Amino acid sequence: MNDTTGRILELLKAGGEYLSGEAIGAQLGISRSAVWKHVRDLKEAGYGIVSSPKKGYGLRAAANIPSAAEVTPHLKTRTLGRRIEYLATVDSTNRAAGELARQGAVEGTVVVADAQTAGRGRMGRQWVSPPGANLYFSVLLTPNVEPARVPQLALVAAVAVHEAIAACCPEAAALIKWPNDILVGGRKVAGILCEASMEADRVHRVILGIGINVNGASVPRELRAIATTLRSEGGQEVSRPALLGAVLNHLEPRYRSWLREGSLTGLLAYYERHSALDGRQVSAENLSGVVRGTARGITPTGELVLQTAAGALVHLLAGDVHLLPQAAPPEVRPGRRAKSTAGQGAP
Ligand code: BTN
């Protein structure tokens, strides 16, 4: 959306039932036919605008697009999202945000796209990013911290995304899967990719890339067993601008506390209360191999603690975690007593 289109949108939002093309043109110094063309662009972008030859134009429905014009009214932040670059299509918002950072963009700059042609996931995977339904965005951060602390930001972001989903779509009972996946009913609705540029003793920048499956009626067939959307879980269309605004509103204070406190201490209680893993049998895969055990929480530095069958406590810094099927509760037959299920992870 260019500047003039954005200003026409502002006028229509403030303009009551109808605003004439002539009045809009006079305010912006453009002709009525130029106004008509901008209004056509707004309609194409999804805004519900009615036209009457006598009365002019009236805005009846805002578009569910995460552009700066739609997201900004939801923001309560000081820095995050104060610059929003909205792109209809981009290869990857993380790549685009990195480029803006190299050109001097300030902390809190957000790049958001309606669609990505080469969305990046963790572990070199692809993030499927069709248009019109979901959120794909990247937040530029420049934390003055030791490089070893950077991976903790993925957990900070996971908490903020969980808080935002809980606020905007409470019907979908979301949980956090370490380190930073958000699941509903065991399937993924959001993922976070934390990419950093740093030297041995200094962080230049961190790009927090966040993908949320929002309003798709479903996900592609090949992903259905492992992924879902907020709309299919919560039953209602979710406002993408409101959800993006909510993520930034939650991320800013979580990020500030993390910087101030020097660890994840302030969010551990929230993280563990909403963890998909606590007390569950999991298998975790990282560069050193596969570990199986019971998840016993996370540390203030963001490591996942697993208790192996032999009782050893293993701390994982990174990895891909899979929930193992829960042990079935014992069958209760008439006349027999059930065995205790304690410690078996009964549902
Ligand atoms: C994951 O694998 O779980 C992380 C997925 C992160 C996807 C988001 S979409 C916006 C941003 N741009 C990218 O290319 N990737 C992230």
Can you describe what's shown?
With 347 residues, the chain is of the alpha+beta class. Helix content is 29%, strand content 27%. α6 (152-168) packs antiparallel against α8 (240-261). The chain is elongated, with a radius of gyration of 23 Å. Residues 335-347 have low confidence and may be disordered. Biotin is lined by residues 92-94, 116, 119-122, 125, 127, 136-138, 181, 191-193, 209-211.
List the helices and strands and how they pair.
Elements: H1 3-14, H2 21-28, H3 32-44, E1 48-52, E2 56-61, H4 68-71, E3 84-90, H5 93-102, E4 110-116, E5 135-141, H6 152-168, E6 174-177, E7 181-184, E8 187-199, E9 202-212, H7 230-234, H8 240-261, H9 265-273, E10 281-286, E11 289-298, E12 304-307, E13 313-316, E14 320-323
Parallel strand pairs: 3-4
Antiparallel strand pairs: 1-2, 4-5, 5-9, 6-7, 7-8, 8-9, 10-11, 10-14, 11-12, 12-13
Helix pairs in contact: 1-3, 2-3, 6-8
Bound molecules: biotin.
